[in-house]
């Protein structure tokens, strides 16, 4: 049993009392249930309120998270970025709350949704420590949600988009309970990176999430990575065959987490042939993950870009952006960027993009190394241009940023890769510094101070020091330079909707 100090804070929520811990001027509540354990009959059910508990529940340790399997990346400390991997346990639909150690109320609230391709990740990754936001007068929340088969596979007889429904349930919990922690439920900003940003971008357009947040910060994400339910049924059938079960709720319910992870690992291999292209011949996720949200249900009735164009989410203020060299994370540490030739580059891109060779030529293939053309093309096709398209279609106030600072990791070649923004946003550079750190030996604290402050100011009252984005002026704020400028339309525009 943990030992308690007089100042350990106790807060009462609907399900019972919770006791956190005070450290360095911050009250920390780690692992509060926001929904019932997703096991047994609840495994493939929409989230329900947590079961009440008697007495005071200590919430000071991370606890369980969603079943997942993390692979190491040579030369890179991934634990700091995505957590230690699967911590087994039933009770993992939980969240963390950090708030300042004082008696202020009506504080702005920020809710973080972690990334990880809808397959891995945790609210407890060291780089995502919300204490830095609490230090600056924000009530910060971070959540777990269902992943993989349990969260994002549209199994017949199972509610679709269970992972997104979990995020919605956590946001509903915030609306009901955050006042107990000094937060203002009318001033909630959701923010996330990668898959977490994709989830947020989708929920900006969801009728089920309307009114749950005032602002959204979308880091290296957008609304272009959803699939139709019919397309995802191909994945249901393939996974059922791999597991030797029927492609039904009952079939998958009999599969334990280890066998499930084995099947996910197998179906996620680049050598596993499965066609997840939509009716337009495009695969919107470019093979990065087999598991993404679906459209065509009550969560996402239509593709998010179509919903934006029709005015969905117009009341939400949006800050959306990318890193300048996103795909370097996927192709530099592996050595693929500098080894792959023209034919293989075409083959890789052809699986997702019908006009693959034209896209590669637009990025210099034939005049420069094919792997570099492929990396730049995919950076724009997968991340940068779809984020700008989200900004173009969003009918509310929208600001666009880009982080152009280049990490010196991997001999200076990692650059402004995917995920480098997270330690800057959270002002947790030490987590990503060192010989195997994402940011190299000495990342600039001034950029972290600046980027973190931009996020805090936006969450407080929506203020940002540059003009909103529109199709004509195209103002993009570069974090390192500290200034906004016109950004021309990218070559990728010719190859995406």
The number of domains is 1
CATH class call: Alpha Beta
Give a short account of the largest sheet: 11 strands, mixed
N-to-C terminal Cα separation, in Å? 56 Å
Low-confidence stretches: none
Percent range for β-strand residues: 15-25%
User: What is the averaged pLDDT score?
Assistant: 96
Number of strands: 16
Tell me roughly what share of residues is in helical segments: 25-40%
Q: Indicate the CATH architecture.
A: 3-Layer(aba) Sandwich
CATH superfamily: Alpha/Beta hydrolase fold, catalytic domain
User: Taking Cα atoms only, what radius of gyration do you get, to the nearest Å?
Assistant: 22 Å
Number of helices: 16
Summing up helix and strand content along with how strands pair, one would put the structural category as: alpha/beta
Relevant terms:
single chain; 497 residues; alpha/beta; Rossmann fold; 11-stranded mixed beta sheet; 3-stranded mixed beta sheet; 16 helices; 16 strands; 16% strand
Provide a quick synopsis of the model:
The chain has one domain (10-495): Alpha/Beta hydrolase fold, catalytic domain (Rossmann fold). Helices cover 30% and strands 16% of the residues. It has 16 helices and 16 strands.
């Amino acid at each position: 049993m943990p030992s308690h100090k007089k100042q350990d804070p106790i807060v009462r929520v609907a399900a019972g009392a919770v006791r956190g811990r005070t450290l360095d001027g911050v009250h920390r509540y780690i692992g509060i249930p926001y929904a019932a354990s997703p096991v047994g009959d609840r495994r493939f059910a929409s989230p329900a309120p947590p079961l009440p508990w008697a007495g005071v529940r200590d919430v000071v340790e991370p606890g369980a998270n969603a079943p997942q399997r993390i692979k190491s990346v040579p030369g890179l400390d991934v634990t700091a970025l995505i957590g230690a991997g699967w911590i087994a346990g039933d009770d993992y639909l939980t969240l963390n709350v950090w708030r300042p150690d004082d008696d202020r109320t009506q504080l702005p609230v920020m809710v973080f949704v972690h990334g990880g391709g809808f397959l891995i990740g945790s609210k407890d990754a060291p780089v995502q420590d919300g204490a830095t936001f609490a230090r600056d007068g924000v009530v910060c929340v971070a959540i777990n949600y269902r992943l993989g088969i349990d969260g994002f596979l549209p199994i017949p007889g199972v509610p679709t988009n269970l992972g997104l429904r979990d995020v919605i349930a956590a946001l509903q919990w915030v609306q009901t309970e955050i006042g107990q922690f000094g937060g203002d439920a009318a001033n909630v900003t959701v923010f996330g990176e990668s898959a977490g940003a994709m989830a947020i971008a989708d929920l900006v357009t969801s009728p089920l999430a309307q009114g749950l947040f005032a602002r959204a910060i979308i880091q290296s994400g957008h609304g272009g990575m959803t699939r139709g339910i019919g397309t995802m049924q191909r994945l249901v059938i393939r996974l059922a065959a791999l597991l030797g079960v029927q492609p039904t709720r009952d079939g998958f319910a009999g599969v334990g987490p280890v066998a499930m992870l084995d099947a996910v690992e197998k179906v996620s291999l680049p050598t596993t042939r499965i066609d997840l292209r939509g009716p337009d011949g495009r695969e919107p996720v470019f093979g990065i993950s087999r598991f993404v949200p679906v459209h065509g249900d009550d969560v996402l009735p239509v593709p998010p870009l179509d919903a934006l164009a029709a005015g969905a989410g117009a009341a939400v203020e949006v800050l959306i952006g990318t890193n300048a060299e996103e795909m370097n994370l996927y192709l530099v540490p592996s050595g693929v960027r500098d080894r792959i030739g023209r034919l293989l580059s075409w083959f890789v891109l052809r699986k997702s993009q019908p006009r693959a060779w034209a896209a590669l030529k637009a990025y210099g293939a034939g005049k420069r190394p094919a792997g570099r053309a492929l990396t730049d093309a995919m950076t724009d096709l997968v991340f940068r241009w779809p984020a700008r398209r989200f900004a173009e279609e969003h009918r509310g106030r929208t600001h666009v940023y880009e982080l152009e600072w280049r990490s010196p990791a991997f001999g200076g070649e990692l650059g402004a890769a995917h995920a480098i923004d997270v330690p800057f946003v959270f002002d947790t550079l030490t987590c990503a510094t060192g010989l195997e750190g994402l940011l190299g030996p000495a990342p600039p604290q001034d950029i972290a101070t600046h980027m973190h402050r931009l996020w805090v100011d936006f969450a407080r009252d929506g203020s940002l020091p540059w003009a909103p984005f529109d199709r004509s002026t195209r103002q993009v704020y570069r974090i390192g330079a500290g200034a906004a400028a016109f950004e021309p339309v990218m070559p990728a525009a010719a190859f995406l909707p």
